Amino acid sequence: MSKDLPSLTVLLAAPRGFCAGVERAIRAVEDALQQTGRPVYVRHEIVHNGRVVNDLKRQGAVFVDDVEEIPDGAVAIFSAHGVSHAVERQARARNLAVLDATCPLVRRVHIEGQRHSRAGREVIVIGHRGHVEVEGTIGQIGGGVHVIECVEEALALVVSDPERIAYVTQTTLSVDDTREIIAALKTRFPAIQGPDTKTICYATQNRQLAVRVISKRAERIIVCGARNSSNTNRLCEVAESEGRPALLMQDSKDLTLSFIDGAAVIGITAGASAPEGMVQEALALLAQWRRITVEEVRVTQEGAQFAPVELSRLIAQLAKAS
């Protein structure tokens, strides 16, 4: 019986889970499916979470890695991570009916980088090479673009004109890591222009702050989300930087009794692309092993909302082609 189980306090980080950009992107796919009445093709995962992707597949969405996999004239959706100009050109050449679900905060980074490029500055993108958001950002800026991932790369970077450079950041990085890289760039290139840590999205910063707060009491941290999610991995890193072992739970089988063995207080959070159902699964598992008391620890309220992706142009294009 549960009353005979050892007790465990569970601290739920808040905010956690879906951010406004993720909700907007998922809704864009669902709206497109409902309003077009036909399959829609999504380039890349709409957000980095297999559960979300599988749910949308069941509704009729088809996920592809490349625009070339999409039939001519079909409905194509660009993911929340954004795409390059080259991908946009490919879509136009195929006469695809495009719905762009790029997160507005990612789009803001694109615009900032483009502004610097037009002003003749080399642009440095602080982020992870190969990440789909970084690839899209590079392809939106054009011109001379450098990608750096760490302080060491910042210190070794060679540019054409140290007086004409700028930087932008991937939105889902660790605030602390980015701050250190920016400080190194400013020390080396005093004339560099950039937005400090402001282009790291509000949701990323809030979720990292919440992990730091619960880590003051929790002995270990469970982070719900996908292994290919940048912001989810950063939450694990933040917990570990606070001296707390972190477990990334992509599936319920990832959470084992051994992880909580000997602990009196556990923390739980979720990446910005992780549905709340993953948190509830973790709680259900913990309740099988311990007599749990759940306490939500809220560090801030998130009131940000983004306008839905506009479908009118897409519908008009489809009607014209019919």
Keywords:
3 domains, flat, 19% strand, 322 residues, Rossmann fold, four-stranded parallel beta sheet, Cobalt-precorrin-4 Transmethylase, domain 1, alpha/beta, 12 strands, five-stranded parallel beta sheet
What is the overall pLDDT average?
94
CATH architecture of the largest domain: 3-Layer(aba) Sandwich
**Class based on secondary structure composition and strand pairing:** alpha/beta
Radius of gyration: 21 Å
Summarize the structure.
The protein folds into 3 domains: 2-18 and 202-298, Cobalt-precorrin-4 Transmethylase, domain 1 (3-Layer(aba) Sandwich); 20-103, 3-Layer(aba) Sandwich (Rossmann fold); 105-188, Cobalt-precorrin-4 Transmethylase, domain 1 (3-Layer(aba) Sandwich), CATH 3.40.1010.20.
What does this structure look like?
The chain is of the alpha/beta class. It has three domains: 114 residues, Cobalt-precorrin-4 Transmethylase, domain 1; 84 residues, Rossmann fold (3-Layer(aba) Sandwich), CATH 3.40.50; 84 residues, Cobalt-precorrin-4 Transmethylase, domain 1 (3-Layer(aba) Sandwich), CATH 3.40.1010.20. The chain is built from twelve helices and twelve strands. The strands form three sheets. The protein has a five-stranded parallel beta sheet with strand order 10-9-11-1-12, with helices on both faces. The protein has a four-stranded parallel beta sheet with strand order 3-2-4-5. Strands 7-6-8 form a three-stranded parallel beta sheet. Helix 2 links the parallel strand 2 and strand 3. It starts with 6 loop residues before the first strand and ends with a helix. The mean pLDDT is 94.
